[in-house]
Design goal:
The structure is a homodimer. With about 280 residues, the first copy, chain A, is of the alpha+beta class. Chain A contains 10 helices and 7 strands. In chain A, α8 runs antiparallel to α9 and α8 runs parallel beside α10. The longest helix of chain A has 23 residues. Chain A is globular. Chains A and B meet through β4 and β7 of A and β4 and β7 of B. β7 of chain A pairs antiparallel with β7 of chain B, so a sheet runs across the interface.
Amino acid sequence: MPPEPQITTATGKGPDEISGFERALESLTHGADLRVWSVIVTLFGDLARNPGDQISGACLGQLTDLMGIKPQAMRVALHRLRKDGWISSEKTGRTSKYQLTKSGLEQSQTAGARIYAQHATNPDSFQILVAQPMPVANRTMLDQTLARHGHVVIAPGVYLGAATSGPQPEECFMVQGAAGSVPDWLRTMLAPEMIAQGYAQLETTLHEVTAILDDKANLTPAEVATLRTLIVHSWRRLLLRHADLPDSFFPANWRGPQCRVLLANLLDHLKRPELAGLSP
Amino acid sequence: MPPEPQITTATGKGPDEISGFERALESLTHGADLRVWSVIVTLFGDLARNPGDQISGACLGQLTDLMGIKPQAMRVALHRLRKDGWISSEKTGRTSKYQLTKSGLEQSQTAGARIYAQHATNPDSFQILVAQPMPVANRTMLDQTLARHGHVVIAPGVYLGAATSGPQPEECFMVQGAAGSVPDWLRTMLAPEMIAQGYAQLETTLHEVTAILDDKANLTPAEVATLRTLIVHSWRRLLLRHADLPDSFFPANWRGPQCRVLLANLLDHLKRPELAGLSP
């Protein structure tokens, strides 16, 4: 009788040797098409979004290696992020240190306020902006400008946001105050099917990771940093692609709120490591 | 040398014989294309909009005769208004009495609140309604429904009104509160050129009538009722064809506010006569 075939994973180890970290990593990256530059944006936003925070090239290399990102892919991503003015680097001897630029810090902190919020936004005041009739090309530009202030298009040239979303653009008429009940067509408009499915999948993943980490919690600081980055990244790429409106504006089967709770628990469990403790 | 040709008016009298009433009448009806049924709606709304108020056929005949409306035209108009459920009539012997129906009373009182208001509406709270995407035909129906509640279309499927305008229709999303500054494109949209011109013309007319009545005030109750009807009618047909929004929502050259002041002074001067004193 031949021996049972050895079950192996991508790391080449047998099932008994697979660590909690590896199982969590597998759950978080399975089927995900990670854009390296975007993961690095999340990484800096999670670990180094205070002025003066720096991450060494060696540390970056270690964390991205743990994620299965190849050195060449990381170098390309860092080059792009420097060129885009998102990060800057300084070299001392053979050591490179990377940090967010002023603009990168500002944008990370703005996004961070939404990403790490314990509760969904729940303003008691909203604003609707109505733009004057204009050619589609101009309106598309206005759509983009207002999206940056947190407004979402709910009809051509009509924008909805929290009352704190931003100033009234000169060409728009605004009414600001309480919102009436949210009709189903608006819920559907605010909750694109792809993002709804993404949240449903993320909920499953975060449940898995929670179970894995409850089971085995022997993680190195670098492993904690790696998992945090991947968890925040999977949340961020859904969250920042839909309107920042209260949970009550989304359909009943929208799993965003559940993901937020799972995320908060996981990040509470995986405390953000000190940068100093990370450098290999 | 032949005698100078005698200047005559439609009444066949010489200029010295033209009364203040006739001059005011000429000013109010000159160039106006009066729809008889609509004038009668104004007449009932001004003189007989309380439950139980009745106007005799003889009195109606006298007032419309003073306006230069032919008996046949009045009979056609009364027939139409009865058929439309606006007025009802009862006959005792040779005497007919006319009165507003329940629906006619309600609509007269609703319109009256706006027509006779001493000041333009000035709510501190407005509402914008946004309808779901729908075929144009359905939207046109919604436009009409919401117009009856005082909402004005400011973009396709987007409605603006005072916060008291009415309930939130099921299919619309609503935000209700303070309005921002009113951009020029919206002022222009709210003030159709034809109505703007109408107000400018009405202002001139009301100035003329004011001057005439200041000069000669010997009017019979029937003449007072006739002039009131024509004055209110000329105001009503402009007022009810534009949005019920504060003066600050209209262009600087919009003469609605000036007309409102002139109207109030004239109606104060031409006190509404008792119905009993009118019957010939």
